[in-house]
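Re: that backbone. Tokens:
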């Protein structure tokens, strides 16, 4: 059994919503008067808390790394309101899980014939889940309603006001600390795989980092590292594929399984088809942005606007290996075809038949091919061809812990060899070499705080693309108002693309864009010269959107519930 712990997704219990959003009585688990009487019922209740739909991570649609043709999510369009369904669903789901965790904790003493050590473990698991859910709530909403006991009286639920998030944070730490003290490092082969000591440490570090409690983040991350049971997966490319299970890098994971029907979003409008190339029947609707593409450094460790190794005509050459692991390289094999978005590449090689076929990934052939020429590659392999795939959903992994440790130490001004080693471990793995092989990858060796802050932020962007972390990073760094008001660019329409770019030998990028100190890419010059097309204008509303709105229905039913500013 590998050292990381998987969360067993058992759907033995059906969710049934209660009449109010704080979920007074978790009806799906039976009445608290007759449930929780034995270990089977308690285990079922715990499994319910681990349902993947209760654990929120952002979609990349909310960031400057993700592009959906000319569409904008409400976040980057600046249009979210108190009626926004995503905000409402997040609030509802978090409180549903909190209520169920509270009810379980209140009834554990009623269970019969369960050893004390098992009761302690179950208590630790429930408190771990509760801490994680409150962590989500304060990250998005700030001050929120806080309670640790079951709410029996509906009038009580309708009268609760928001508690200060800093006080809630201390309660979160108390729950995580109990989990850290009482959860196992690992489970036996014959046991269900759930939360562990390492998971509690990692998630404690995450919420501390989000709240800029650098000392707590540093200490929790360091304690997780010092468990010596996690390590970086040998291959960055393979880590996210469906064939990779039980990686020692994964700390908290929701496993998927085709056999059990637990699969990635599929079907014509599912995420699988929208990320697949058009040559295999996909829609190439979800694409990486040019902003993301330009963020990967060159192999000399310099950004593309500073490195002599960058060639805008061959933009994939001499780049950090995570570039071609994340974005499909032009002229490379992808899902059985050579990928080539060039407008004059009207036919392309089918590697399975050895025959040339119509190139549906070129806008010279089909207008709906990728508007900016880019496709995601990270985690995508031949398993995606039949629209059914089951890669594990990694909620937090060891690379994140290393970079959280480094960031916290940098912000504290405690820059020492352990900081450089943490960053360099992640960078070296990208190149497939040992961290000590400093001549084989661009190792970081500076002690300058500003420089290291810039590097660790960039490292998080290129390491965690499409893993749901970019949005909250932009929020906590207070960069959303800059990154998410930037324009989104792509290729010219086909006629102009051929006339202005191809005939002038300016394919793919007409020139090298500039990148500022915050990693924001600037295509303004190329746009003003008519060499690129603006696809959309991001419009993040900094006056209010650093916090999400409290759902309007909560305000309507509770006179003591106040709204976040601007909604």
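Recovered sequence:
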């Amino acid at each position: 059994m590998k050292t990381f712990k998987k969360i067993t997704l058992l759907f033995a219990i059906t969710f049934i919503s209660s009449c109010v959003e704080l979920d007074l009585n978790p009806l799906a688990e039976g009445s608290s008067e007759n449930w929780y009487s034995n270990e089977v019922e308690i285990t079922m209740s715990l499994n319910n808390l681990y349902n993947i739909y209760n654990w929120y991570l952002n979609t990349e649609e909310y960031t400057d790394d993700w592009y959906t043709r000319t569409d904008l999510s409400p976040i980057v369009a600046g249009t979210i309101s108190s009626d926004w369904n995503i905000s409402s669903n997040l609030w509802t789901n978090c409180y549903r899980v909190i209520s169920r965790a509270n009810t379980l904790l209140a009834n554990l003493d009623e269970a019969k014939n369960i050893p004390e050590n098992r009761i302690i473990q179950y208590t630790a698991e429930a408190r771990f889940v509760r801490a994680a859910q409150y962590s989500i709530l304060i990250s998005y909403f700030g001050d929120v309603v806080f309670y640790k006991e079951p709410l029996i009286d509906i009038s009580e639920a309708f009268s609760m006001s928001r508690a200060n998030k800093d006080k809630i944070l201390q309660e979160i730490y108390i729950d995580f600390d109990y989990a850290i003290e009482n959860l196992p490092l690992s489970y036996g082969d014959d046991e269900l795989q759930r939360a562990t000591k390492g998971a509690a440490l990692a998630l404690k570090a995450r919420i501390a980092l989000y709240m800029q409690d650098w000392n707590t983040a540093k200490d929790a991350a360091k304690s997780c590292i010092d468990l010596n049971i996690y390590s970086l997966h040998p291959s960055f490319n393979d880590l996210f594929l469906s064939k990779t299970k039980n990686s020692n890098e994964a700390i908290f994971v929701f496993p998927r399984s085709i056999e059990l029907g637990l699969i990635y979003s599929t079907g014509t409008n599912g995420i699988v088809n929208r990320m697949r190339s058009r040559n295999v029947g996909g829609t190439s609707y979800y694409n990486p942005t040019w902003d993301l593409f330009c963020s990967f450094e060159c192999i000399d460790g310099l950004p593309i606007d500073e490195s002599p190794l960058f060639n805008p005509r061959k933009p994939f050459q001499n780049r950090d290996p995570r570039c071609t692991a994340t974005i499909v390289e032009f002229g490379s094999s992808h899902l059985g075809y050579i990928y080539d978005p060039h407008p004059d590449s009207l036919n392309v090689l089918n590697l399975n038949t050895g025959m040339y076929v119509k190139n549906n990934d070129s806008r010279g052939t089909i207008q709906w091919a990728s508007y900016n020429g880019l496709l995601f590659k990270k985690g995508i392999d031949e398993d995606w061809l039949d629209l059914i795939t089951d890669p594990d959903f990694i909620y937090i992994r060891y690379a994140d812990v290393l970079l959280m440790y480094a960031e916290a130490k940098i912000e504290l001004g405690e820059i020492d060899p352990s900081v450089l080693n943490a960053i360099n471990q992640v960078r070296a793995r990208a190149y497939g070499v040992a961290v000590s092989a400093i001549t084989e990858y661009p190792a970081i060796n500076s002690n300058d705080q500003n420089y290291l802050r810039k590097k660790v932020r960039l490292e998080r962007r290129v390491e965690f693309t499409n893993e749901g972390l970019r949005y909250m990073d932009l929020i906590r760094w207070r960069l959303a108002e800059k990154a998410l008001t930037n324009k989104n660019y792509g290729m010219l329409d086909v006629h102009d693309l051929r006339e202005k770019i191809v005939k002038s030998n300016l394919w793919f990028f007409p020139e090298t864009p500039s990148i500022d100190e915050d990693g924001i890419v600037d295509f303004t010059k190329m746009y003003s010269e008519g060499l690129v097309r603006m696809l959309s204008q991001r419009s993040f509303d900094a006056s209010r959107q650093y916090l999400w709105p409290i759902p309007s229905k909560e305000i309507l039913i509770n006179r003591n519930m106040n709204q976040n500013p601007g909604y």
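The CA atoms of residues 402 and 499 lie 48 Å apart. Residues 1-20, 26-30 have pLDDT under 50 and may be disordered.
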